[in-house]
Structure formats: structure tokens, C-alpha cells
Queue: 3 jobs
Job 1
Amino acid sequence: QVKLVESGGGSVQAGGSVRLSCAASQLDIEYYSMGWFRQAPGRAREGVVCINTSGRSTYYVDSVKGRFTVSRDAAKDMVYLQMNNLEPDDTAVYYCKADGIAVHYWGQGTQVTVSS
């Protein structure tokens, strides 16, 4: 059974950093574009960043550009999101997603809370 498991969330003060990890099992992420999404209370889920299969192409939502960095390790089937200079508006549940040609998978999410 394919699983994506996020970890690394927690509580941090504004200006701090958090590194999220997404571990894929029964899934060779080499063949999937990977993305991080987030959902804050009362708001729709939004895409934060995506990274293509090779890792050479990334797209960041404007609000996180210059602060967040995505990376992937195909050998370990892992995806990471380094989040620096966090702001209270970054508070949300963060989800990992794997996108294939005709299929996609979601993780269960990890909470990140940024206090001012």
C-alpha cells in the first residue's frame, strides 16, 4: 500500500525554521512530481511548492519565495521542505503529494504553528 508520511512539524516562533520530511513507501518517487501543500483553519488547501521528477525544476507560491526550499532524494524516496524565516501566516497543516500521470497520493499532514 502506497503511503506518504510527513514529519518534522511543530511549534516555532516567528523568524524560526522548520524542516519537514515526506517519506514515501511502496512508491518510487523517481517517477512522480512531488509537492507540498498547506491548509490553514478556515481556508482552502493551497499549493506551496512543487518539484519535478528530476529535481531541476521547482515552482514556489509567491508568499514563500526566498524563505522555503524544496528538495528530493530519489534514492531514499524522501522529499524535504526547509522553511526559514517563518511567519504566523505560515501556520497550517502541511501535506505532501505525489503526482503521477494518472494517479496521485496524499500524506496525512503535519501541523506547523508559528507564534508571533
Job 2
Amino acid sequence: VQLQESGGGLVQPGESLRLSCAAASGFSFSNYDMNWIRLAPGKGFEWVSSIDSGAKVTRYADFVQGRFIISRDNAKGTLSLQMDSLKSDDTAMYYCVGGGVAYWGQGTQVTAPH
């Protein structure tokens, strides 16, 4: 497994979670732009956020702008997603994805029920 997510869970709407993704040793984490992509029940995959390899440029989908913050630590080989003011619509499996869409983690489930 090249990428491993953690940090998902069951929260109430309005609460926060912090997702993490750890790269395996030998994976050239610092060379890749990284993304968070989610898959919600009854929906297709949705791109959530991205960060460039140098952690200088971040981008967000409109539906998380102002609520989520992506970050990375290349020295540690980790990617994070701080998720605040969670909504029921944020319920999904969240995947850490790198190398375009070449490398995927196994996902971590976030649930914020109505």
C-alpha cells in the first residue's frame, strides 16, 4: 500500500475532523501533487482539494471552500485535510490520491448524519 488514510469517523454536523494520509517509505511523495477525492453514496467521485508538490499552491472545490484546509509535510511524507463545519453532504469515503490519479489509498469514511 503506497498511501494510507486515517482520521475518519462519525461526527455531528458542524463539528470538525482532520484526515491524514501517510505515504509508504519508497514512495516519492515529495515529487507528486496530491489530492483528496471523495465518493458519496449515490454520487460519483468528487474532487475535493489539491496541493502542489512544493506546498505552495492549494485548490478547493466550491462546496468545501472556506471550510476545509489541505496541507502536507514532505519531510514526513504526510498529507492532511482539516475539515471544519462539516455538513451531512460531506458524508463520503475520502481518498488520498497522488500522481494525477495513479496512486490511491484505501480511503477513510467520514459520516455526518442529518
Job 3
Amino acid sequence: VHLVESGGALVQPGGSLRLSCAASGFTFEHYGMSWYRQAPGKERESVAYITSFSGVTDYEDSVKGRFTISRDDAKNTVYLQMARLKPDDTAVYFCHAPTLDAWGQGTQVTVSS
């Protein structure tokens, strides 16, 4: 199982960013996928989740209405579209396959002017 995140960057407050997570080594379409984040000095927290097949989504309260998780099973990729970014969104963002307990290496998102 291999998860590789990309798309992290330095962005100004109010800006947008899209993270990608490319998956391999398992039948991607059969598994729900999550995005987590970990800010400096804080515990890792769940940000968003998307089920397999039906694509039902769930979000942490602070990102509802700003972040959108989606998946492309043909590309074995899960995305996190982030809008109206705030400095509090600064963190390392991780892709996670909960059932497999697999993690990516993370991608840094910094929101700062």
C-alpha cells in the first residue's frame, strides 16, 4: 500500500489550494479515504472522509463549507479542494486509508501573508 500526497504550498489567507493523494497497491475503489492534518504542537486531526462507491462525505466542523473531498477511482486518487484558507489551516496534511491503516508522508500547507 502506497499513498503519495502532493499540492501543498504557501498560500495567502483567503486563497485556495487543491491537494492530491495518489494511491497504489490496493483496490482503491473499495476503500473509504480520509484527509488528516497536524499543526505544529497539536495532535493529528481528521479533516474529511469519503466513502467508497457512493462517495458520501463528512467533514470536521471547522472546514465545513470551505473544504471538499472527492475521489477519482479511475485515477486511484483522492483530492482535497480547500477554499477561503485561514492561518489556522496551516499544517501538514496526510492522506489516510483507515481500513488499511495506511498513511502518506504528508504535504505542507502554510497559510500566511
